[in-house]
Amino acid sequence: MKFSAHARSRARRYALQALYQWDLSGQELGEIRSQFAEDEEFARADVAYFTVLLNQVPAQLDIIDNSITEHLDRPLKQVDPVEKAILRIAGYELLFRDDIPYRVIINEAVALAKKFGADQGHAFINGVLDHAAHKIRPVECAGKGEQVNGL
């Protein structure tokens, strides 16, 4: 399946916002998706991938959270809600999307953290995901022990 990297990045950005909203409000996923569909810019995103993330991250939440939690320096409930949503998206991709290289996943997550996260949140995201990637995808990561973006 062919897709635009920019459209995929936009899908992740919208998914971050939607999953943040879902986590804080408990609002129905269908309602959230409808709200985003009303945005004129939404059509520029990979809408199909946004839908996958919006549906699959909550559906696989326990597996994703368990895979992330072991790499955190604090309980998941103490992680900033924006950073938690970023980690969940990237965790989903690391676990269930072998078609996306782990370096792309980490780079996209770091970019989201730089744009939406707390000060220095991107370094936290990078460290957690680098450790998670090495555990989840050891063959792909073999021999590539350095962290992404030199962090």
Give the SSE layout.
Layout: H1 5-25, H2 29-37, H3 47-59, H4 61-69, H5 81-96, H6 102-116, H7 121-136, H8 138-141
Helix pairs in contact: 1-2, 1-3, 1-5, 4-5, 5-6, 5-7, 6-7
Task: Give an account of the 3D structure.
There is one protein chain. This protein is mainly α and 151 residues long. The protein has 8 helices and no strands. It has helices at residues 5-25, 29-37, 47-59, 61-69, 81-96, 102-116, 121-136, 138-141. α1 (5-25) packs across α2. Residues 145-151 have low confidence and may be disordered.
Number of helices: 8
Rg, alpha carbons? 15 Å
Helix content: 55-70%
The CATH topology, please? N-utilizing Substance Protein B Homolog, Chain A
CATH architecture: Orthogonal Bundle
The low-confidence runs, each spanning 5 or more residues with pLDDT under 50, are 145-151
Give a nutshell description of this structure.
This protein has 151 residues and is mainly alpha-helical.
Structure keywords:
single chain; about 150 residues; mainly alpha; N-utilizing Substance Protein B Homolog, Chain A; 8 helices; about 0% strand; disordered C terminus
